Amino acid sequence: MEKQILIAGFGGQGILFAGKFLAYEGLIAGMSLSWLPSYGPEMRGGTANCSVILSDGKIGSPLVTKPDILAVLNLPSLDKYENDVKPGGQIYINSSLIERKVLRTDVEAFYVPATKIAEENSLDGLANMIMIGNMLKNSNLFPLESVADALGKIVSPSKADLFTYNMKMIELGYNYK
After folding, report:
1. Is the pLDDT confidence value at 135 over 70?
2. What share of the chain is helix, strand, coil (3-state, %, to 5)?
3. What residue ranges do the domains of the chain occupy?
4. Which of 3, 132, 169, 170 is most exposed, with the fewest beta carbons within 10 Å of its own?
């Protein structure tokens, strides 16, 4: 099994954090993995994307050019990467910020109003983890029960409140539709 995942959006949307979370999930599961962040020099407000490869075998290259799974948090990212997704792949769309539908018919699309859900829960900035929660549910990458271990690796004990908020957002995304 090998899954190539691309998460994309603006800097400041937690793109790299979401990718790091998936990488730790794979590490804990004993998989081979690659985590390759990419962001513009302006960071916040600039473009950001993160490639994650999870595999039962060796990984030849960290580059994700034909993702199995694409998660986009803004329209420019959907416009840029939609056609790169493998036929039969999945696209997760932050429908709070992206009004258009996926144009392809050979992929599965999931529309998640992640920004709106985060705002309704007074947790602006955690739309990334809502998207991840929905991805976990619909892709069967990892069970929800394994989330706390990986999250515990990337949220420091000194920021325990962030652990709780991130867990809540993952669960909201997981339980969405």
Report:
1. yes
2. 40, 25, 35
3. 2-175
4. 3
